[in-house]
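> example.struct
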């Protein structure tokens, strides 16, 4: 009996050790993603704080999602690695659910903290995702995913199940997607065709907007697109990558404004990527070569830049996507650091300072 008890205790100890070892890797636990004791803010003191790093996410665990003891044990014994981002290129958040398009993993990640679950979507209907590069929040807690290799956009529900497919002849490289919940229109940016394709909510093709060129309303390999959330007019903001500028167009394709130029100076563009707006109308533009995020006003004046090259927290390696939530949190897809970095935006950061948040 005594030998049995000793053996049982030994087995339990081994199991606990296996699970503990399984929890040692990945995410913020590896130290690389750990936040410093002193908050990282931009600009540096004594100037007033405008941006603050608050979270770094590489795994579901970093988003507050737990794995049961038995799940951790099963993963450890089978050698299955913890779920982790590979090459995140786009990100969005709604009500505690983080969505990440990850072409490196050929997957859409759904980190659903309210339901304490992580979903890795690799299959849509009867076909597998190949290169999901962009996403947009959709109706009824759904999410749109643009796959450049499949030349399609998929609407998925909160569980990652296919609801509808958007495709049309001539759609070559759907690089970005935007859903306007007020007009129920889906806008798909086709990088190879230098234009925006517009669908209704049921998947019917409505029109195309734009063409190749360098004049206003024309594009040269546009790569990213966002809805102007500072108003409800349905205007689109487009990264016109090889014209090294940002353009704003109305829902009919008419030019509203544009700014930007190629260069190495502050406010210039080298490889402009993702873009987004906050509640105050500031424009956040990721630059993959500068490896930072630049913040502009509508006149194209640079207000602030944050980030910089590196793998430390607050630094980026070839970042791509950016998303600003309704709570003014800024999510940056730090692609080659395999993570999402979360910042308090200008408005939220000021509120945090007022409330004494550390």
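> example.seq
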């Amino acid at each position: 009996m005594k030998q049995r008890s000793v053996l049982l205790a030994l087995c339990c100890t081994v199991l606990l050790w296996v699970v503990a070892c399984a929890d040692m890797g990945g995410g913020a636990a590896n130290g690389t993603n750990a936040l410093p004791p002193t908050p990282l803010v931009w600009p540096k003191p004594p100037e007033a704080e405008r941006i603050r790093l608050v979270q770094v996410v590489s795994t579901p665990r970093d988003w507050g999602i737990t794995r049961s003891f038995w799940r951790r044990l099963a993963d450890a014994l089978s050698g299955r690695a913890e779920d982790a981002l590979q090459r995140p290129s786009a990100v969005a958040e709604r009500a505690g659910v983080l969505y990440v398009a990850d072409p490196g993993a050929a997957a859409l990640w759904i980190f659903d903290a309210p339901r304490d679950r992580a979903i890795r979507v690799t299959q849509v209907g009867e076909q597998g995702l190949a290169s999901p590069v962009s996403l947009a929040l959709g109706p009824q807690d759904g999410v749109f995913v643009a796959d450049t290799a499949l030349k399609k956009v998929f609407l998925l529900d909160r569980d990652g199940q296919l609801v509808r497919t958007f495709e049309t002849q001539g759609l070559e490289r759907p690089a970005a997607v935007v859903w306007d919940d007020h007009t129920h229109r889906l806008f798909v940016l086709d990088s190879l065709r230098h234009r925006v394709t517009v669908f209704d909510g049921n998947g019917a093709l409505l029109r195309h907007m734009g063409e190749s060129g360098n004049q206003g309303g024309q594009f040269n390999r546009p790569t990213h697109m966002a809805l102007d959330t500072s108003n409800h007019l349905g205007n689109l903001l487009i990264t016109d990558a090889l014209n090294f500028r940002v353009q704003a167009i109305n829902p009919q394709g008419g030019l509203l404004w544009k700014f930007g130029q190629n260069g190495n100076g502050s406010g210039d563009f080298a490889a402009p990527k993702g873009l987004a707006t906050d509640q105050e109308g500031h424009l956040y533009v990721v630059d993959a070569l500068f490896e930072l995020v630049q913040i502009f006003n509508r006149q194209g004046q640079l207000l602030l830049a944050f980030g910089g090259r590196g793998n430390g927290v607050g630094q980026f390696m070839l970042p791509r996507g950016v998303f600003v939530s309704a709570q003014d949190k800024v999510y940056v897809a730090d692609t080659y650091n395999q993570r999402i970095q979360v910042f308090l935006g200008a408005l939220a950061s000021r509120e945090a300072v007022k409330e004494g948040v550390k």
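> remarks
Helices lie at 2-22, 69-78, 346-355.
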